[in-house]
């Protein structure tokens, strides 16, 4: 029991510190975050208190309003923090890989399966929707990378649907903040065992990560591909 209590006590300061850090990071991009959160909490609590006085149960509805005010504030904070994070990542090489890493259970992601010297890059995700190739970079240049990778996928796993997405602003592209939602909306056509089999077959291909150390998440702007184009696939 003592060990469990100690672990819980140690975890609480960690969570509070993480929340405080998230708030500070969000406030840099969203100056009004404090006022917005305060307004949401006050409005929700005020509404329930008013209803409580009208019906003669201010204490009961006040407590309920306090809990719901906290919940509403947490939801608004989470959404604005997510929006601020996407805003900071927007346009950075490797930003799409960071989103794919957090897409959720049921997906296996492989960052940087193809890349050129200009840092245009293609990531791969495999799930019940099939194979999704996500490209980021110049839309004109990434099309050739996507076409080559899609041709490879169709040759190795011809019975699995292959989708391709280009991250960015403009027609025919998907905004970074909408990437996860777009992928989760794709129709599910594979079973769990089929997803596993597909991953096993693709794992045999190897990828760029096996030949070149590329960090997860946004990649350094000074990073350059070695001469000779893309590394050889295993």
TrEMBL record:
Residues 219-234 have a biased composition (Low complexity). Pfam families: DUF4191. It comes from the Bacteria. Residues 208-234 are annotated as: Disordered. Keywords: Membrane, Transmembrane, Transmembrane helix. The chain crosses the membrane at residues 33-53, 59-78. This is DUF4191 domain-containing protein. It comes from Streptomyces tagetis.
């Amino acid at each position: 029991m003592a060990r469990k209590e100690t672990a819980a006590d140690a975890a609480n300061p960690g969570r509070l510190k993480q929340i405080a850090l998230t708030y500070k990071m969000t406030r840099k991009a969203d100056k009004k975050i404090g006022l917005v959160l305060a307004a949401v909490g006050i409005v929700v609590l005020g509404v329930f208190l008013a209803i409580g006085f009208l019906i003669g149960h201010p204490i009961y509805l006040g407590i309920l309003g306090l809990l719901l005010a906290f919940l509403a504030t947490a939801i608004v904070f989470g959404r604005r923090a997510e929006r601020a994070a996407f805003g900071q990542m927007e346009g950075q090489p490797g930003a799409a890989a960071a989103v794919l890493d957090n897409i959720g259970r049921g997906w296996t992601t492989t960052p940087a399966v193809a890349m050129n010297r200009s840092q245009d890059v293609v990531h791969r995700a495999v799930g019940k929707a099939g194979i999704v190739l996500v490209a980021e970079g110049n839309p004109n240049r990434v099309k050739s990378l996507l076409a080559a990778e899609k041709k490879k996928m169709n040759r190795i796993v011809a019975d699995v649907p292959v989708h391709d997405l280009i991250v960015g602003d403009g027609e025919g592209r998907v905004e970074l903040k909408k990437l996860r939602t777009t992928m989760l909306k794709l129709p599910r056509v594979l079973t769990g065992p089929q997803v596993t089999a597909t991953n096993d077959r693709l794992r045999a291909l190897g990828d760029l990560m096996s030949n070149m150390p590329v960090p997860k998440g946004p990649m350094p702007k000074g990073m350059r591909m070695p001469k000779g184009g893309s590394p050889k696939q295993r």
